[in-house]
User: Which sequence fits this backbone?
């Protein structure tokens, strides 16, 4: 028994524990395995049992996995290899685990071949250490070969993952064209353009159209998850009034929700609450969360709210539905994983919606959190950073960098308010809308932040930019803001041109920042 490779599995989920044991049994090696459902139980094992490897879940009922790592190291067990196995919520958790001494981490749901490769590697390392050949050159070569073997396996796994993404992406694109043709053909028949139909025929054609739409949604989900995972999803960020956006999304669900016998409530501040986001993508997130609340709520209320904090804006979707069990919560944002929430016919989808939602929010440097109780309901909280000057200037720099790649010269108009702090959002939002109507070329860009509006005019020298500026000035004067608003004192504007005024992109960005602060 003492010659067997000793493992402690620290996991509170019986299902996940069974999966790990099954994987160990499939390796073809004899193990001495002990199972602990908590930190306390695992700690007791150490009195008479020092393992060769620990498979550790991060989320335990008494202490988390990070506490576990710190404690066993304090007790002198730094040499025991620990592999963390969990549904990591973000990259920071992975980095923290490595800093605390974990040798590796594996995401849930566990890929069998990946875990087997990791364990086999530890078995080989243990054999090398037991044979006392670490100090020899032969041992070093052996370790290099082992690491090379593991590296090759990792490359193979990455290649398989890449092939999977390419397959999904290619198939999804290939399905698009025939699906569009089918949808158009069925629509023509359903509208009676190819001849009169009876009620039964129309009914079946409508069912066909509904399933075509469902298939189209599945294709969109597959394309979204592929672009998000490959970091190829580009955000078209701008200042967006999240209050107005929430109201619009909720209004689209009112008829559907009331028809089901539910209530839907919108709790938002009276004024505007700006966030710097991709409007269409956040709209997609809200639709997905409210739609989930609708599907899994049979009676009661759906409440959508917006709350302003010092550095963040929080948007929540709360329901009184069936809820989610504690064991299912760690898998909630996993791909193709549909948790055991019971719902009516047609409620199941691809299992990608929440994974896509999480990806979109994280691309915005935000967070999504969930709280749920079975039979009582679920609360999703989206936390987005408030617009900041640094964020806007980063965006401005990116825009200027893109312009510089395609154009040899360009000008930037800078607008600011004479009396900062007095109705800034209202005036600058109106100014941006006004300017958007005044510029006619697709290459021209208008950028808005908390205190300024910038207009980038590619292939425009200073004299030509002055013509555009004068046109905007005239339109501003025609608006009579000073008469409509007592607290409005007017705008101050500047022009800076490249390369007439400055010779490098950095100089231009710094000059724009100086203009903004000086104004």
Assistant:
């Amino acid at each position: 028994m003492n010659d067997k490779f000793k493992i402690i599995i620290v996991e509170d989920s019986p299902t996940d524990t069974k999966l790990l044991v099954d994987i160990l049994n499939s390796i073809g090696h004899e193990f001495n395995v002990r199972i602990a459902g908590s930190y306390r139980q695992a700690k007791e094992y150490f009195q008479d049992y020092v393992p060769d490897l620990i498979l550790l879940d991060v989320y335990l009922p008494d202490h988390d996995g990070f506490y576990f790592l710190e404690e066993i190291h304090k007790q002198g067990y730094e040499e025991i290899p620990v592999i963390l196995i969990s549904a990591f919520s973000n990259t920071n958790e992975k980095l923290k685990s490595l800093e605390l001494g974990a040798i590796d981490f594996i995401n849930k749901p566990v890929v069998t071949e990946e875990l087997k490769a990791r364990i086999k590697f530890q078995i080989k390392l243990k054999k090398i250490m037991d044979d006392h050949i670490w100090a020899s050159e032969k041992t070093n070569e052996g370790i290099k070969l082992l690491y090379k073997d593991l590296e090759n396996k990792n490359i193979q796994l990455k290649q398989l993952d890449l092939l999977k993404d390419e397959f999904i992406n290619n198939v999804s694109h290939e399905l698009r064209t025939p699906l569009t043709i089918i949808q158009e053909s069925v629509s023509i028949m359903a509208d009676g353009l190819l001849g009169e139909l009876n009620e039964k025929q129309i009914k079946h054609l409508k069912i066909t159209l509904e399933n075509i739409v469902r298939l189209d949604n599945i294709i969109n989900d597959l394309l979204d998850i592929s672009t998000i995972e490959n970091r190829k999803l580009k955000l078209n960020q701008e200042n967006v009034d999240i209050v107005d956006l929430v109201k619009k999304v909720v209004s689209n669900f009112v008829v559907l929700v009331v028809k089901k016998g539910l209530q839907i409530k919108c709790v938002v501040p009276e004024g505007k609450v700006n966030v710097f986001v991709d409007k269409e993508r956040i709209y997609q997130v809200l639709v997905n969360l409210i739609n989930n609340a609708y599907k899994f709520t049979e009676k009661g209320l759906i409440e959508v709210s917006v709350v302003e904090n010092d550095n963040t804006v929080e948007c929540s979707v709360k329901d009184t539905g069936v809820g989610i069990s504690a064991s299912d919560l760690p898998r909630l944002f996993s791909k193709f994983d549909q948790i055991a929430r019971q719902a009516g016919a047609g409620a199941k989808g691809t299992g990608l919606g929440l994974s896509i939602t999480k990806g979109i929010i994280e691309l915005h440097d935000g967070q999504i959190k969930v709280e749920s109780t079975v039979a009582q309901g679920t609360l999703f909280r989206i936390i987005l950073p408030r617009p900041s000057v640094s964020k806007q200037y980063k965006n401005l720099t990116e825009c200027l960098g893109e312009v510089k790649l395609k154009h040899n010269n360009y000008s930037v108009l800078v607008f600011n308010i004479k009396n900062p702090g007095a109705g800034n959002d209202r005036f600058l939002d109106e100014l941006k809308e006004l300017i958007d109507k005044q510029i006619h070329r697709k290459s021209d860009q208008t950028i808005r932040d908390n205190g300024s509006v910038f207009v980038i005019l590619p292939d425009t020298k200073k004299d030509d930019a002055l013509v555009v500026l004068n046109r905007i000035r005239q339109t501003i004067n025609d608006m009579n803001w000073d008469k409509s608003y007592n607290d409005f004192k007017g705008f101050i504007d500047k022009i800076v041109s490249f390369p007439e005024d400055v010779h490098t992109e950095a100089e231009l960005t710094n000059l724009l920042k100086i203009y903004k602060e000086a104004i």
The chain has three domains: 5-110, 238-385, 389-518. The first strand starts at residue 5 and ends at 10. Residues 219 and 370 are 26 Å apart (CA to CA). Residues 238-385 form a domain with the Heat Shock Protein 90 fold (CATH 3.30.565.10).
